[in-house]
Amino acid sequence: TDAATPGSAPKVKTLPDAQTVTQVTHWTDTLFSFRCTRPQSLRFRSGEFVMIGLMGDNGKPLLRAYSIASPSWDDELEFYSIKVPDGPLTSKLQHIEVGQEIILRPKPVGTLVHDALLPGKRVWFLATGTGIAPFASLMRDPETYEKFEQVIMMHTCRTVAELEYGRKLVEDLRDDPLIGEMVEGKLRYYPTTTREDFHHTGRITDNLSSGKVFADLDLPRMNADEDRAMVCGSLAFNLDVKEVLEGFGLREGANSEPREYVVEKAFVGDGV
Ligand code: FAD
Ligand code: A2P
């Protein structure tokens, strides 16, 4: 416990595993990101997720899985979140402000990690919606550029506004003093929309199957010798992408058995 300094209020953490929010950004009426303090002892691999939340009305922690969107070298943690209007957690979490606390259980896990992929020439990050969060971490991790000659970030949302978090992240990355130089010429960003006009449109599955993305980026057709992939989206998206990737000859890997691609759900429950 913190001792009170005479004349000042004692700094008491009110929640178990509490971390303090340092920044909040609202991107749309359904999307926001926030940063918080990082427990000194927390070690994680870029791409992993943790359980975070708030104290529920019943006095018990209300926790949900969240991908860590910041890279493992960052002093703080970043999260990118949906706002579900009647969602038990996000109906409250969306109102969080700087200085307030969240609960963070410091036990990172997940399959979207470099250890689960065999070495290759190119890595494809395939995401819909908030599924870009683990790649926000991996795109900022030097290991990604040490391991692969080319990194292709495909992100698809219904509207242009929903792409903004990822767009800004990629833009800022190019000017980043720490890894800007590593990223230069290696990171290819391929955002598309499906329900609004944009310079590139269409589902990731369709742009891969038709070969459009390979033509647009002047890359060879995806193949098991050179290409690796990490996938994060709704269950329906993940299932459809898996089929496409298997069609190119890639096989699903895991921490215990690295192969050509890995998959993680961006959230549970979407009517499949
Ligand atoms: P819930 O009761 O959890 O969800 C209500 C409904 O909202 C769900 O049935 C689903 O239809 C929909 N929904 C939930 N999450 C999303 C989403 N992200 N995108 C679209 N629809 C959704 N959420 C994030 O916002 N950012 C993350 O980085 C993130 N990482 C996750 C990682 C894993 C491994 C898993 C399993 C889930 C992750 N989620 C993430 C989802 C998150 O755990 C919660 O479901 C979300 O915060 C909503 O919580 P809730 O209590 O408000 O509503
Ligand atoms: P679409 O607009 O054609 O459904 P959502 O907001 O429903 O979670 O979807 C996020 C993005 O993922 C949308 O652009 C959506 O395209 C796309 N998407 C949803 N389901 C699939 C799927 N099974 N395969 C490929 N893309 C999908």
From TrEMBL:
It catalyses: 2 reduced [2Fe-2S]-[ferredoxin] + NADP(+) + H(+) = 2 oxidized [2Fe-2S]-[ferredoxin] + NADPH. Its cofactor is FAD. Residues 14-115 form the FAD-binding FR-type domain. The keyword Lyase does not apply. The keyword Heme does not apply. GO terms for molecular function: ferredoxin-NADP+ reductase activity; nucleotide binding. It holds the Pfam family FAD_binding_6. PROSITE patterns: FAD_FR. One of its GO terms (biological process) is cellular response to oxidative stress. Keywords: FAD, Flavoprotein, NADP, Nucleotide-binding, Oxidoreductase. Its EC number is 1.18.1.2. PANTHER family: FLAVODOXIN_FERREDOXIN--NADP REDUCTASE (PTHR47878:SF1), OXIDOREDUCTASE FAD/NAD(P)-BINDING DOMAIN PROTEIN (PTHR47878). Belongs to the ferredoxin--NADP reductase type 1 family. This is ferredoxin--NADP(+) reductase. It comes from Pararhodobacter marinus. The lineage of its organism: Bacteria, Pseudomonadati, Pseudomonadota, Alphaproteobacteria, Rhodobacterales.
